[in-house]
Amino acid sequence: MRFFLSTIALMSVVSSLIAAPTARAPDAGEELPDGLPYPGPGELKVIEQNAHGTLPNGPAPPVISNRGILNLKLIAFNELFEVAFFSELIANITENVEGYRFTDDDDRTETLSWLKVILAQEELHAIRANNALSSFGVKPIEPCHYKFPVQDFDSAIALAMTFTDVVLGTLQDVVETFAIGKDVDLAREIASVIGQEGEQQGWFRVMQGKVPSELPFLTTSDINFAFTAIQSFVVPGTCPNILEIGLRTYETLNIITPPVAQSKNLTFSFSDTRNETSHPLWMTYINQQNLPIVEPLRVVSREGDLVKAEALFPYDDNEMNGLTIATVTFSEGPFGDANAVAKWTLAGPGLIVVN
Length: 355
Description:
alpha+beta; Ferritin; Immunoglobulin-like; 2 domains; 4-stranded antiparallel sheet; 8 strands; globular; disordered N terminus
């Protein structure tokens, strides 16, 4: 069974990441499956069986850099969100919720079987990150309450593909930081996770009629962009220790015009509380392993803090396929990499996926 989503349909999902939170008491984190975030020995054994593999059983490194700790916190924060997402998706299919019903029983059985493996693997990722934090005397990251802007199986798979794209870009930043900090054992382990995430991403893309391998060199990112993007799925006030993560949260960047595989002006909206109309802003795009692309940002309207602006999406000259991370920056650069863009970002990330 394959689900064919247009770029416009996918972008409607991405643009809705800032949808109003569902009504939930902002008091405690989500109840996750299989005893997470702290499964007992029996629960862990079942998770490993479902995941077709085990947690690494080697000793933790004796020391870790401060940036390494920051990486582990972000990984745990992300993986707990993914566990909640795939758990809810499996429940919707299992319970035959409207929009998640299958016409073919064999397709339904196969899809559920594969999703349960993915869920268990993401559970192990979350457990591993929090166990590593605990081994270094750092408090584990607790789950939040989550909200997912999807209405059916098609939009759920499109969203899974988009956030997995962000994960694949973010883990590049993580593994480089581990290497710079001489956290070499962790760098090798994260490299193995990148391969696993890429395998499931290929399936998400095939389910949408896309070529399984997205790009020759996947789009890179910065962990601050991932931290901001994940919060789009979080009910505010429900993360017990999010303030201990220590990463930046940017203003939300909304993509109003659905992008296509051609150069055209796109319209965006974002909040600029500075009210500094005389200071120019730029739209900066991160795509593949290329230097960030900077385009002038023309303000169309300003109502209070809400700004509507447009900028060229220069697809034709740059083969901007796959994931593009769009950000509003205070500087026109030039930027050497995604980390440099993050330091000058006002609003973002806006997530664009073409082809």
